[in-house]
Amino acid sequence: MLEAHGACLGNTMRGYEARGRRLRLLPAGGALVAGRSLAGCRSAVVAGQSPAGCRSALVAGRLPEGCRSALVATGTSEGCRSALVADRLPAGCRSLLMALPQTGADTSAIAMACVRSVGMDTLGSNGKASVKVSELDGKAPESTDYANYFCTYAFLYHQKDMLEDHKRTGAYFQAVMQNRRQFSGKVVLDVGTGSGILAIFAARAGARKVYAVEATSMAQHARKLVQHNGLAGVVEVIQGTVETVSLPEKVDVIISEWMGYFLLRESMLDSVLVARDRFLKPGGSLFPSHARLYLAPMRSTHAHHRKAEFQGSMEGWAGFTQDMRQYYGVDMGCLNEEYRREQQEYFLETSAWADVHPSQLLGSPACFMRYDLLTVTLEELAAPLKAEFRMDVLDSGPVDGFVGYFDVQFRGSPENPTDYEVLLSTAPDPTGATHWGQQTFTLNPVLEVTAGDAVVGEITVVRKKENHRLMEVTVAHRVVGASPAAATAGHLRISRYHIE
Questions:
Q1: Per the database entry, which stretches of residues form a coiled coil (predicted)?
Q2: 240 near 137, Cβ under 8 Å?
Q3: Separation of alpha carbons 17 and 7, rounded Å
Q4: Active site includes 421?
Q5: How far is CA 177 from CA 376, 419, 422, in A?
Q6: What residues have CB less than 8 Å from 112, skipping those under 6 apart?
Q7: CATH number for the 153-257 domain, one of 3.40.50.150, 3.40.50.720, 3.90.1860.10, 2.60.120.10?
Q8: Which residue is catalytic, options 257, 342, 349, 500?
Q9: In which element (H, E) is residue 311 found?
Q10: Contact, 72 vs 38, CB < 8 A?
C-alpha cells in the first residue's frame, strides 16, 4: 500500500514510490501491490482470456488502499478472486471479498463495508468515527480524500515505516527534549498524531496538556499507546480532521510531521496552518517553524535506465499490436501515439524516489524557496510556487537530472525561541536517505556542462487539478558561462514532471 497519496488504480501505467518501494500497475490492468503479483489477474489478462471485469476492475479512488487493491467491480473470475484474497488485507475486507457474487456486485455497498472494516466510517451520515475516542472528536475526512490519502495512515505497519526512520524520529525527539523549557507547563497540539509518538515526547518534556488530533482510526491505537505509557492524564487523543475538531483552550505549541516528498506533496501543511490560525496563542511556537526547498544538478544512471525501459515498453507494444492483428484480426495501430505518450509520461516525465549520494552532485544546490510557517498563508500555499534558481557547476560532465530535497528547522517563534535549534535535512547523505529520500527529475537529453558554468532558470510547482495532494513541476533551465558547453547548451529548455 502506498503512503498516501492518491493512488489512482484506474490509471494502469502510473508508477509510484512508496517510501523507496514502487507500486507498479500492469499495462493490461493487473496490479503489483507492494511488489506482490496478483497472479490470477496477471495471468488471465496476459492470456487475453479474462472477462472485462478482471481487466478494468480495480475500483479507483473510493476505497482504502488495501481494499482498493483487492476489490473487483464485476465479473471476476475465481482465479482472480483467489489471488486477490491472498493479498494482505484487513479481515473485514478479506471476508467481504470472499462473499462477493460473481457478477453484479454493488460496489458502493462494498466501498462502505470495506472502509468500515479498517475502522473509519467515512461514509456515515454524521461523518463521525465508528469508535468514539474523545468527547472532542471531529468529523472524518471526506470519503475520496480518505481513500486517496488518509487511509494508509490507519495501518500500524505504515506508522512503523516512519518511526524507524531514526533521522526523522530522532530530530523530533531532540527538538522536544533539548527544548524542554518551551514545553514545560504548556498546552500542545499535535496535528496528525498518527501513533501518538510526538504527543508522548511533548508530555515527557513536561507539557501540562497535549491534544493529539488524528483523522484516521489510528487514533484508537494512539490512545492505547498513551494509556500504556502512563500519560493518559496529559495526552488526550482526538479522532477527526483538525479542521473540524474544537478545543476548549488555545495552545502554546503546535507540533506536526506534515512534510511529504519534495516537502509539499500531500498538502498536509494546509491543515497545520488551519490549526495555527484557529488554536495557536499569540507568540506561540510551531515545531518545525521553518522549511526550505533545494534543487541541485546530478549525475545518475537512472536517466539511462528509464529511457531504456521506455524503449523496451514501446518494443513490447509493437509486438503486442502485431499479435493482435495476427490472432484476432484487430489493428490497434491507431493507438500507437496515445500509448507512446502514456509511456513517455510514466518513464520520462515522472519524478522518482532516490537515495542520492553526495558524490553524484555536479554543483552546489540552489535554495529556491523558504517558508516561515508562522507567517505563510493558505492562499500563498495554494498558489503556484514560482522561483528562480542558479546552480553553480563545480564538476564537468553531463547533468543527467536534477535532485530535489528539503529541510526543516525547529526554531520556535520570535517571542519563544528554542534554546537549541535542530535541523532535519533530507539532503543527499553518505550514511543514507531518510524515508523521504530525494526526488529526482531526469533530463532527456542530458545537459552538457563544464566546471565554472551555471545552470539557471525558473521552477514552478503547482497542485494537480485532479488531486490537490499531488504535484506538477516545470523546470525552465539553460546553461550560462564562457565554456563551449555553455555556448552549445545555452538555449532555454522546458522540462515537465509529475510528483505522484
A1: none
A2: yes
A3: 11
A4: no
A5: 27, 11, 11
A6: 121, 123
A7: 3.40.50.150
A8: 257
A9: helix 302-328
A10: no
Is residue 96 within 8 Å of 113, Cβ to Cβ?
yes
pTM summary value: 0.72
Q: Would you call 266 a catalytic residue per the annotation?
A: yes
Site of grid cell 553526495: 358
Closest to 295 measured CA to CA, from 402, 176, 439? 402
**CATH (one of 2.70.160.11, 2.30.110.10, 2.120.10.30, 1.10.3720.10) for 292-298+352-499:** 2.70.160.11
Amino acid in the structure at residue 130? S
**Residue 450: which of 392, 402, 397 has the closest Cα?**
397
Give the pLDDT mean for 153-180.
Answer: 87
DSSP 59: P
- Number of helical H runs and strand E runs in the chain: 16, 19
Q: Following DSSP, what letter does each residue of 135-178 receive, concatenated?
A: TT--PPPPHHHHHHTGGGGG-HHHHHHHHT-HHHHHHHHHHHHT
Question: Cell for 357?
Answer: 549520494
Q: What is the pLDDT of residues 374-383, one digit of tens each?
A: 999 999 999 9
Q: Give the whole-angstrom CA distance, residue 239 versus residue 216.
A: 7
In angstroms, the Cα distances linking 195 to 219, 254, 318 are: 7, 17, 49
> Which tens digit of pLDDT belongs to each residue from 58-100?
333 333 333 434 333 333 333 333 333 333 333 334 333 433 3
Return the residue matching grid coordinates 493529539: 212
> What kind and span of H or E run contains 324?
helix 302-328
* Phi, psi dihedrals of residue 499, rounded to the nearest 5°: -105, 105
Which one of the listed residues 266, 342, 349, 500 is annotated catalytic?
266
